[in-house]
Write a structure and sequence with these properties.
With about 400 residues, this protein is mostly helical. The protein has 14 helices and no strands.
């Protein structure tokens, strides 16, 4: 056994954090490929779409993104040496293993609920630890980090509300879906996005403090108000539409306020890295534009009844913004950013991702018959390709991380 993981002196290093996160990413994309394949191929009685979807989403959220944010937050605040975070990380991942062993076979049932609840409670401990250990830091990046952690905690209201909703016979009402959307919204737009903004603010040593402070205020307020976008399918009334529009405009303003510092910083970086980060930035602006467009009631209803558009939007954030950002962060950590082979595979990933987004989008245009069948098959093949390239990137990073010292 690796000495750094011995029972007596558990001391995780970046090698362990990165490798474990990448393993969960690999498993999550395999589940994604299987799920998408079910749209074209018969999967047999062993396959339950909802069960596999729950597994995929939990592994992607909690195994990949949560873990990698956890690592970079610890690194940002020089907390990697604190053993309590190592023990907590192990406990968190035991709960993810539990989800892997329960969700595919029973969906939401006693076993999977125990493990998912365990992860939520452990994430609260992480939130408390991080708050206490960074309390003296008054920087803007710490404010974004604390906001991200707060929204992570708030998002758990969604899963915890499912039990009373089901017990009261309301599973087939709007409240069940709203609870799920509440969780997804504050995970995506709060925990994921604001963690990334914190890491960016830290890495570029944000200079225009007034603009960053204003951007922080706008991001926090708009994240709360923008949940309105996730409720428009219930036709809640024009007031909620206006709130949704205003919250999206706030995000446009916030991203504008910090854009100068970001682009000035990118001029000092390798041309390839600068280009990839600009693509990610552009996709984030596109995300806000789609949210603004979705504030129109007719558009919101159209999107709600076209599942591929919903999936496309979620993938835009998860696969187009969050995952490539952390790919580049890991590559920086491992010294792979300037390698030609790495540049090619990241570009290929983005190209395949954009093709998959285009295919998901055109399914809502109105094709039918043989045309929609062809497009559906192309989506499946593109999913396989995207899964394959993601697995390759994960393997390259894992191999590089494996060479790192364990102490």
């Amino acid at each position: 056994m690796d000495k750094s993981l011995s029972a007596k002196t558990l001391q995780l290093t970046k090698k362990h954090y990165i490798i474990i996160s990448l393993i969960w990413l690999a498993i999550a994309v395999i589940f994604a490929a299987v799920i998408r394949s079910s749209f074209v191929f018969g999967m047999g009685t062993w396959f339950n779409y909802k069960y596999f979807l729950h597994t995929h989403s939990h592994l992607a959220f909690l195994g990949w993104i949560f873990n990698i944010i956890y690592y970079f937050m610890l690194k940002q605040y020089d907390l990697l040496e604190k053993k309590k975070y190592g023990y907590l990380f192990v406990a968190l991942n035991v709960s993810v293993v539990g989800m892997l062993l329960t969700f595919p076979f029973q969906g939401y049932a006693i076993g999977s609920i125990i493990f998912s609840t365990m992860h939520i409670l452990l994430s609260y401990i992480f939130a408390v630890f991080l708050y206490r250990d960074t309390k003296g830091d008054k920087s803007i990046h710490r404010k974004f980090a604390m906001a991200a952690v707060l929204f992570m905690v708030i998002s758990s209201i969604g899963p915890f509300s499912l039990a009373p909703i089901i017990v009261n016979g309301m599973k087939d009402t709007i409240w069940y879906d709203l609870a799920i959307y509440f969780y997804i919204h504050f995970q995506y737009n709060g925990w994921f996005v604001l963690s990334i903004v914190s890491l960016i603010a830290y890495s570029i040593k944000a200079k225009d403090e007034d603009n960053w402070q204003r951007a922080y205020n706008l991001f926090v307020i708009s994240t709360v108000l923008n949940f309105s976008l996730s409720t428009l399918w219930t036709d809640p009334g024009w007031v909620i539409n206006i709130i949704s529009v205003l919250s999206s405009l706030m995000q446009f303003h916030a991203i504008f306020l910090i854009s100068k510092d970001i682009f000035v910083h990118l001029r000092t970086k390798d041309r390839f890295k600068s280009m990839i980060m600009k693509v990610i930035f552009a996709l984030f602006v596109l995300k806000i534009f789609f949210a603004l467009a979705g504030s129109i009631q007719e558009v919101a209803m159209y999107v709600y009844y076209n599942r591929n558009l919903v999936i496309g939007y979620l993938h835009l954030v998860f696969l187009g913004i969050v995952t490539p950002f952390f790919f580049m962060k890991i590559a920086d950590d491992l010294g792979l950013t300037t390698q030609s082979s790495h540049k090619r595979i990241i570009l290929f990933y983005l190209v395949v991702f954009l093709i998959s987004e285009l295919l998901l989008t055109i399914t809502a245009v109105g094709f039918n018959g043989d045309s929609i069948l062809l497009i559906t098959k192309l989506i499946v093949y593109t999913t396989w390709l995207l899964a394959g390239v993601t697995l390759h990137i994960s393997d390259v990073y894992r191999a590089a991380a494996q060479k790192l010292p364990s102490n």
